[in-house]
Amino acid sequence: LGVDSEDIAVAEGIESALGLAMATQIPSWSAVSSSNMPNLVLPSHVRRVVIGPDVGDSKEAGMKAAVELKKRIVAEGKKHRRFIEVEIRNPAGTANDWAEWAEMRAR
Fold it and tell me: Are 60 and 14 in contact (CB under 8 A)?
């Protein structure tokens, strides 16, 4: 969602990706689910990734997936001798995900 960029944001669902794009002003991708998130393949020109996990589930699947993705991106960057800045950014306030954050902001 957005233009091609060296910066990219990643969230679980499409609604969360839209909310994260609103919050960061960075083009966003949806992983569709937390189980897909660690397997995302990013374009080689990406230099900065903001990961927006869903934090409202009791099993913490969203945060675990975000941490896995971050570890993989950092490892791949080292392997290919590229620095990739990776940040995990939780939704602000009491929101459980970035879609909820955007909805609360719209009220």
Answer: no
Separation between Cα atoms, residue 23 and residue 51, nearest integer Å: 12
Which pTM does this prediction carry?
Answer: 0.90
Residues 85 and 49 sit within 8 Å (Cβ to Cβ): yes
Judge whether 51 and 69 are in contact, CB under 8 Å.
Answer: yes
- Cβ atoms of 51 and 32 closer than 8 Å: no
Q: Do residues 66 and 55 make contact, with C-beta atoms less than 8 angstroms apart?
A: no
Condensed to tens digits (0 to 9), the pLDDT of residues 33-63 reads: 999 999 998 888 899 999 999 998 767 899 9
What pLDDT, in 10s, does the model give residues 57-101?
Answer: 767 899 999 999 999 999 988 888 888 999 999 998 889 999 999
Which amino acid appears at position 105 of this protein? R
3-state secondary structure of 52: strand
